[in-house]
């Protein structure tokens, strides 16, 4: 995934409530993705994330449900510098306001719970 150049980010429009998709460069650091808003707080997708952090990401054909947050320059200083350096190596550019995308891991079924297919009710075992 880290070798891909772009991803598609879908946010929820802060005024309309409609899905808004952009194509954007990204980097991977640990188990998270990082995007950079060249125009900082003026970017519509940044404003949308600030209003609703639930996002969807698509890399190639792989959809990912996620949450997003905009990094804070003071609180996230070390992380900000790290991901900017990764972006500079990958793209030759690491400026802008970074946002962190954390994939939501699918819940695994509780091994002590079964679903009865005839009525759809959960039963503990």
Description:
This protein is an alpha+beta fold and 125 residues long. The protein contains two helices and nine strands, in the order ββββαββαβββ. The chain has helices spanning 44-51, 77-91, and strands at 6-12, 19-25, 27-29, 32-37, 54-59, 62-70, 97-103, 113-115, 122-124. The strands form two sheets. Strands 2-1-5-6-7-4-3 form a seven-stranded antiparallel β-sheet, sandwiched between helices. Strands 8-9 form a two-stranded antiparallel ribbon. 20% of the residues are buried. Mean pLDDT is 88; it is low at 113-125.
Question: Radius of gyration, rounded?
Answer: 18 Å
Shape: globular
Query: Please, what is the average pLDDT?
Result: 88
How much helix is in the residues?
10-25%
Order of helices and strands: EEEEHEEHEEE
Order of strands, main sheet, comes to 2-1-5-6-7-4-3
The largest sheet, given as strand count, sense and whether it forms a barrel, is: 7 strands, antiparallel
Low-confidence stretches: 113-125
Care to count the β-strands? 9
The termini sit apart by: 39 Å
Q: Total helix count?
A: 2
Secondary structure category: alpha+beta
Strand portion, in percent?
Answer: 35-45%
Q: What is the structure about, briefly put?
A:
The protein is an alpha+beta fold.
List the helices and strands and how they pair.
Layout: E1 6-12, E2 19-25, E3 27-29, E4 32-37, H1 44-51, E5 54-59, E6 62-70, H2 77-91, E7 97-103, E8 113-115, E9 122-124
Antiparallel strand pairs: 1-2, 1-5, 3-4, 4-7, 5-6, 6-7, 8-9
Keywords:
125 residues, alpha+beta, seven-stranded antiparallel β-sheet, two-stranded antiparallel sheet, 2 helices, 18% helix, disordered C terminus
């Amino acid at each position: 995934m880290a070798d891909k150049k772009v991803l598609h980010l879908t946010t929820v429009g802060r005024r309309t409530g409609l899905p808004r998709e952009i194509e954007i460069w990204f980097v991977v650091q640990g188990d998270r993705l990082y995007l950079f808003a060249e125009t900082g707080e003026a970017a519509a997708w940044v404003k949308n994330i600030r209003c609703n952090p639930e996002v969807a990401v698509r890399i190639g054909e792989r959809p990912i449900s996620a949450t997003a947050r905009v990094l804070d320059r003071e609180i996230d200083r070390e992380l900000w510098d790290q991901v900017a350096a990764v972006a500079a190596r990958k793209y030759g550019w690491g400026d802008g306001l970074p946002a962190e995308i954390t994939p939501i891991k699918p819940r695994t079924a509780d091994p002590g719970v079964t679903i009865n297919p005839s009525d759809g009710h959960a039963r503990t075992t």
